[in-house]
Design goal:
27% strand, four-stranded antiparallel β-sheet, alpha+beta, 18 strands, six-stranded mixed β-sheet, single chain
Length: 343
């Protein structure tokens, strides 16, 4: 064998080794792909009912109101995986720092997603109750797990008084606590599902810049229904983007109109307690997931329309929504063959 041949063989082997190392080397990217869709009117992957109504008999539903998700690679992505992802139309490769910011661990980000998901469930319930025209009042929106109200009060408790002083507004509650000290106990009168109740709560220290003491709750104007809603999936998905579909699912289960008429509808959107629908991320992948699952109609936040245009899968009718009441009317108009807004 000549020296030139040996040199070419050695160079070829070294190139092959370096190439294999390069393509298998982890890179600071993650790959996003269409995730599972789940019918809020049905059950999860473990056959558990997603929306449980307690205190009244839910309606018999026939269609789908599917929430949509995006899968994120949890393991380190290799250069080869990133390259394949860039070449596929149903994959998005993004810097890992866009999902897991510097200074935050993956566990911390996942915990934030879990908290956002829980908040979105409460907002969805609040928005649905008001859209169903249940009476308004002042009450608990959320409870701090590290304060005295834990296990004493819960979301959708309607506040009545503190040690006999009416607390039917934020200002009155703040005034009632202004001269209180952490460690003192107060008696709270409230209504739960319309039933008068009382509890004693040990006050906690105030937050930064605050005076007095605190109960450990977030409060506000909301609507109160004579039944409870228990939303599942807290151990399966995260983030706030399922809010719209949860709210519609609640309304279909307890409202007076059938929102689907057997149709396969999917969608996404963060929802506020007042019913406003906010934009979310990954909508292009969510539309792909919805269409693959069989959806013919997709509800998209109005502020995501720029992301929707030119990326809608064939056969998917995308309706833009700005608020929960609008989404309900759009679905009813769709059933009646009337025009609906599109991106």
């Amino acid at each position: 064998m000549t020296r030139r041949a040996r040199t070419l063989i050695v160079a070829g082997v070294l190139f092959l080794v370096l190439f294999v190392v390069a393509v298998l080397m982890p890179v600071p990217y993650v790959v996003l792909s269409p995730g599972p869709t789940l019918n809020t009117l049905g059950a999860d992957t473990q056959d558990r009912t997603i929306i449980v109504i307690r205190g009244r008999t839910p309606n018999q539903t026939t269609g789908h109101l599917n929430l949509t998700t995006v899968d994120i690679t949890t393991n380190r992505v290799t250069a080869f995986q990133a390259l394949i992802g860039w070449l596929q139309h149903d994959r998005v490769v993004v810097p890992r720092s866009t999902i897991y910011p510097p200074g935050q661990t993956e566990e911390q980000v996942n915990q934030q997603d879990t908290e956002q998901f829980a908040s979105s469930q409460d907002n969805a319930t609040a928005a649905a109750f008001c859209a169903l025209n249940y009476p308004k009042g002042f009450g608990v929106l959320g409870v701090d797990a590290n304060a005295g109200a834990k296990d004493k009060l819960r979301a959708f408790d309607q506040l009545v008084s503190l040690d006999g002083t009416p607390i039917d507004s934020q200002d009155k509650l703040t005034a009632a606590l202004a001269n209180r000290k952490p460690g003192e106990s107060v008696d709270i009168a409230f209504k739960r599902l319309g039933k008068p109740m009382t509890t004693s709560i040990k006050l906690s220290a105030p937050g930064p810049g605050q005076k007095g003491a605190r109960i450990g709750i977030t409060v506000g104007e909301q609507c109160f229904a004579p039944f409870e809603v228990d939303l599942g999936l807290g151990d399966q998905i995260g983030g706030p983007s399922a809010g719209l579909m949860f709210a519609l699912g609640i309304m279909d289960k307890v409202g007076s109109v059938d929102l689907t008429k057997g149709a396969y509808i999917a969608g996404t959107g963060e929802i506020q307690s007042d019913g406003k629908v906010l934009p979310i991320g990954g909508i292009q992948l969510k539309m792909i997931a919805a269409r693959r699952a069989g959806a013919a109609v997709f509800l998209a936040p109005q502020d995501n329309c720029a992301d929707v245009r030119g990326a809608t899968p064939k056969g998917l009718n995308v309706i833009k929504v700005t608020a929960l009441r609008d989404a309900v009317q759009d679905l009813l108009n769709l059933q009646a063959g009337k025009p609906v807004p599109h991106c």
